[in-house]
Amino acid sequence: MSDYRKMWADLGLDLDAHDQLLQALPPTYHDVYLTQTNRPQKMDYFDFVVNEIHGLRIQELQQHKQQGGKVIGTFCVFVPEEIVRSAGGICIGLCSGLETGSGEVEKILPRQICPLIKSFMGFKLGKICPYFESCDLVVGETTCDGKKKAFELLNDYIPVHVMETPQMKRERDYKLWLKEIKDFAVKIEDITGQKITAASLKQSIIDTNAKRQALLRLASLRRHKPAPISGKDSLLIEQIAMYDDVTRFTQKVNELCDELEERINSGTGVAPANAPRIILSGTPMAIPNWKVPHIIESTGAIIVAEEMCTGLRYFEGLVPEDASSLEEAYANLAQRYLNINCAVFTPNNNRTQRLMELVEEYQADGVIHVSLSFCDPYSIEATQVEKACRQAGIPILKLETDYGQEDTEQLKTRVEAFCEMLR
Ligand code: SF4
Ligand code: SF4
After folding, report:
1. Would the CA dihedral through 165, 168, 170, 172 be positive or negative?
2. pLDDT at 53 over 90
């Protein structure tokens, strides 16, 4: 990595704490990713992106800002990135996949709270995330109580705009959500100083659809036996999708897919055709949270899809590109985003129904449901998911974990026993 220290210092990072963070990442990445055998060659680009995670992309964000551009951070796939892009902004998914700064965080948040919430507070209080420090605004949502209340506290450190996300999907909820999207557009216009036009939103929808289509193409290639790419590599790409340059990322995913198609034609896979095929379902796995996928694939099983927000929930569902007015484009966005099957909705039967379809489509042998500790929506909904799987005769394993490593051996034992049963 080039020397980015001046850039980090100018961003106000705590350089010592940041150094420690950067030292921890390469060994983990090596163990989890670089020891995999028979990886597609086109994963080189994604390895490069991780290697430059606090370097090149941050430099690009700074250049954008120097030219008057704005950077908007988000924590949830409900926030319509198309709107940010249509006003000339860059939308960045802030990761929150690592435990950091717990001491400081626990002074203002309860100890027993979802690790994702603790993580984003830890990154901000500790001043160790250059993405966070590059943001002109962060966008929160009222998806769950923990997040909703934590955003009030976060607002003391950085401007936060909160979108009210509905918890049901009736006509009146749709109307509320449409209004929220329009208010969000006004806020973004205000921050960027650029008007959103029907033409700029249409182009942004086209670009974002292209990114989602590339990810859908990747997902559909994973339906083949033997799987042409590991679940860990696929998850990494889904994580990088949240913050990389949209056009470049789309091109690189499509290049990877070209290679995967060649692999499929020649029968090349990353695991034997009879390896147990798993669908991961549950809370999002933000970078660098690779603990459970690493444990699963270390048993010789292969993850073939993620029914998660770092996965299919992020890229299933495109926005129509033929809206004849700004009003119609906003309505299309509202419709598309309200279809996301997050566990904060009640009822959320579409999620279990989609999961059952995915098991068929991806020729899966079982489901592993992973909830983050203290996440009520997903931990409670795990019971519905389990019930649906049992009724359909699909083996399921339910796990609950956090970002620590203390439970690794215990998780390994349970995952190994489950995968052995699927053989
Ligand atoms: S799980 Fe729900 S709250 Fe979390 S990112 Fe996904 S949609 Fe947003
Ligand atoms: S993982 Fe659960 S508790 Fe944590 S932010 Fe998401 S919905 Fe809320």
Report:
1. negative
2. yes
